[in-house]
């Protein structure tokens, strides 16, 4: 019999530091559950790592939800996949023994957008997140409940895929919901840089 833990192919690495947060690693288009493991080790050494693979294929490339065109999301699919990911997170918390209150998403591009969607619609399953190259996944109907969440949004000044207002709008929505949000701009395009890594390390410093 399948369980919510079976909703996603995933990789689990236990913590080597008891005081470290648990990181939920969410890849960009074409990645898998292994892609962000090196990044997770760099930004928060000793953390438990939960790498997750998206269930949608776009021309053979895994994603976390469907899109209709570049920057145009299938909102119904986004909401369904967000709900499934939240169910998976709750099951993984029970299976692997970590607290949701210490779980931070680390997402890149498509993974950052699904992480943002979880923070907007199912905030109880995350303590916050480090979102690399994220935009607003959807406009919430009302104010989100993000009090106590810590979020870093690291955006690229020259990103051809995500507009500056898109990143700023996401930060504003989360702030309005009570989250502690840092929006940082990298002198970069869509790819990750050492500056992104350094920001992540500062975010997770004890």
Question: How would you describe this protein?
Answer:
This protein is an alpha/beta fold and 206 residues long. The chain has a single domain, classed as Alpha/Beta hydrolase fold, catalytic domain (Rossmann fold, 3-Layer(aba) Sandwich), CATH 3.40.50. It is 32% helix and 24% strand. It is built from five helices and eleven strands, in the order ββαβββββαβαββαβα. Strands 1-3-2-8-9-10-11 form a seven-stranded mixed β-sheet, sandwiched between helices. A two-stranded antiparallel ribbon has the order 4-5. Strand 2, helix 1 and strand 3 form a beta-alpha-beta unit. Helix 2 packs across helix 3.
Pattern of helices and strands: EEHEEEEEHEHEEHEH
CATH architecture: 3-Layer(aba) Sandwich
CATH topology: Rossmann fold
CATH superfamily, by name, is Alpha/Beta hydrolase fold, catalytic domain
Q: What would you call the structural class? A: alpha/beta
Strand content: 15-25%
Could you estimate the helical fraction of the residues in percent? 25-40%
Report the end-to-end length measured between terminal Cα atoms.
41 Å
The neighbouring-strand order within the major sheet is 1-3-2-8-9-10-11
Write down how many β-strands occur, each being a DSSP E stretch of 2 or more residues. Answer: 11
In angstroms, what is the radius of gyration?
15 Å
Gross morphology: globular
Work out the count of structural domains: 1
Uncertain spans: none
């Amino acid at each position: 019999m399948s369980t919510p833990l079976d909703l996603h192919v995933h990789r689990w690495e236990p913590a080597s530091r008891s005081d470290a947060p648990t990181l939920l690693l969410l890849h960009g288009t074409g990645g898998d559950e292994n892609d962000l493991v090196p990044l997770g080790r760099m930004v928060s050494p000793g953390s438990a790592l939960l790498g997750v693979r998206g269930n949608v294929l776009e021309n053979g490339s895994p994603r976390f939800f469907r899109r209709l065109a570049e920057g145009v999301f299938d909102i119904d699919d986004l909401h369904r996949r967000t709900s499934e990911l939240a169910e998976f997170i709750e099951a993984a918390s029970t299976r692997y023994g970590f607290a949701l209150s210490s779980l931070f998403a680390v997402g890149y591009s498509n993974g950052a957008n699904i992480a943002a969607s979880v923070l907007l619609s199912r905030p109880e399953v995350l303590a916050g997140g480090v979102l690399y190259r994220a935009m607003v996944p959807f406009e919430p109907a009302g104010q989100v409940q993000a009090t106590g969440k810590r979020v870093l949004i690291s955006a690229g000044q020259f990103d051809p895929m995500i507009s500056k207002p898109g990143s700023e709008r996401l930060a504003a929505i989360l702030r309005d919901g009570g989250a502690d949000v840092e929006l940082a701009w990298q002198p970069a395009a869509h790819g990750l840089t050492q500056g992104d890594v350094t920001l992540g390390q500062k975010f997770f410093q004890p």
